[in-house]
Amino acid sequence: MDLYLLAELKTISLKVTTVDMQKPPPDFRSNFEATPPPILIDGGLAVLENEKIERHIMKNIPGGHNLFVQDKEVAVLIENVYSKFKLMLLKKDDQSMKNLLTQLQKIDSHLGKKETRFLTGDTLCCFDCELMPRLQHIRVAGSFFVTGFEIPKNLTNLWKYMMNMYNLDAFTQSCPADQDIINHYKLQQGVKMKKHEELETPTFTMY
């Protein structure tokens, strides 16, 4: 998402190629073997792994350093959201759901106190690029796999934040379809996608 934002700001030219890791094309296998995406190729240089990609963006891509702000409070606030979500998918019990919702309430409270569009201000930063894709996974996969789960509508600050993100091309263009998100977790659980599911028209839960 960081790169989509920089492309939207016209500081870089971006081309995205998706790869089916179940059946990677020969040129991908010969160059990267079993290396999972994302892989950044900049001027012929291949950069692997999320942290190295972030460092490369910050140091080498125009405007990239502006995305990476220092905010320990926000870093701590969002660091456990995804792990609590994964635990809820695993256990599917009231306590794990409660733990995730408590974390979402803390984020909602933070946004209410800040009164800004995004986590650290009115400008998008690395923390937003980390949190929002996870919120989308929580929204889509959470309701699919865990009966009765949804992001509560009374978390009005969080929903306003999500609506702001849904209005950004940088998010909508980088957001996977609902089916891709759900299939990602099905594969983790050892469940294969059925043939009719592969043929479904992609849908995107937004707004």
Descriptive report:
The protein is mainly alpha-helical and 207 residues long. The protein has two domains: 2-65, Glutaredoxin, CATH 3.40.30; 72-198, Glutathione S-transferase Yfyf (Class Pi), Chain A, domain 2, CATH 1.20.1050.10. 55% of the residues lie in helices and 4% in strands. The chain contains eleven helices and two strands, in the order ααββααααααααα. The protein has helices at residues 2-8, 26-32, 50-60, 72-78, 81-91, 94-114, 126-145, 156-166, 169-172, 178-188, 195-198, and strands spanning 39-42, 45-48. A two-stranded antiparallel sheet has the order 1-2. Helix 5 (81-91) runs parallel beside helix 7 (126-145) and helix 6 (94-114) packs across helix 8 (156-166). The longest helix has 21 residues, at 94-114. It is globular, with a radius of gyration of 18 Å. The relative contact order is 0.11.
Q: Which SSEs are present, and which pair or pack?
A:
Blueprint: H1 2-8, H2 26-32, E1 39-42, E2 45-48, H3 50-60, H4 72-78, H5 81-91, H6 94-114, H7 126-145, H8 156-166, H9 169-172, H10 178-188, H11 195-198
Antiparallel strand pairs: 1-2
